[in-house]
Amino acid sequence: MNRKALIVSVLISIAALTAVAAITPIDLAQLREVTAPFHNPELARNAGYDLVAGLDSCFENPGVGGMGFHYIDTAELSNTALNLLRPEALVYIPSPNGLQLGAVEYIVRQDLWDGAGNTQPPSLNGVSLHLEPSLGVYTLHVWVWRNNPAGMFEDFNPAVPLCP
Asked: How far is the C-alpha of 125 from the C-alpha of 15, rounded, in Å?
């Protein structure tokens, strides 16, 4: 493939990805900027994020990948509004050096969303959340701090070690 054809192919791929996911590189840069302080879990706690009883274990799916621990701002779960720059949860990956921020998660309670008569799942900048029926929430992970070979918006990350 010559250089011009390669460039055209890359541009077409970028355009296709942008059409599917409307979270832009600028959005991701802003998200990284506002969540950078939360590499320190203590600063996350001070900002309202913490482990929640019943959801305080490490999440994993053997054969698919790891996820980690979720520090949740429960105050953000009282409505259906989503704010790109204020995710409902921070996802920390266990490592030998402690917890490392890997992803953020957007969460909408199913009872609030469906109870308002919505027939489609909630979305954030054009990216739909998906229902986790066992938890009664719609969720969207965004792996902004750790590359996810399965995809930026996938729940589990094969590059994340399973829980200790």
From this structure: 16
Q: What are phi and psi of 63, to 5 degrees?
A: 90, -15
Number of domains in the chain: 1
- Asked if the structure places residue 38 within a domain, the reply is yes
Q: Does pLDDT of 30 surpass 90?
A: yes
Per-residue pLDDT at 2: 55
DSSP, res 35: H
Query: How would you write 118-131 as a 3-class SS string?
Result: CCCCCEECCEECEE
Predicted confidence at residue 18, as pLDDT, reads 41
How far, in Å, CA of 19 to CA of 162, rounded?
33
C-alpha to C-alpha distance for 66 and 61, rounded to whole angstroms: 6
Q: For 20-24, 106-110, 114-118, which range has the lowest pLDDT when averaged over its residues?
A: 20-24
Per-residue tokens: 39: 């590499």
Least-confidence region, from 3-12, 27-36, 140-149? 3-12
Cα 62 from Cα 126, distance rounded (Å):
30
Is 114 inside any structural domain? Answer: yes
Residue 85 CB partners (closer than 8 Å, separation 6+): 30, 31, 34
Distance CA 129, CA 115 (A): 17
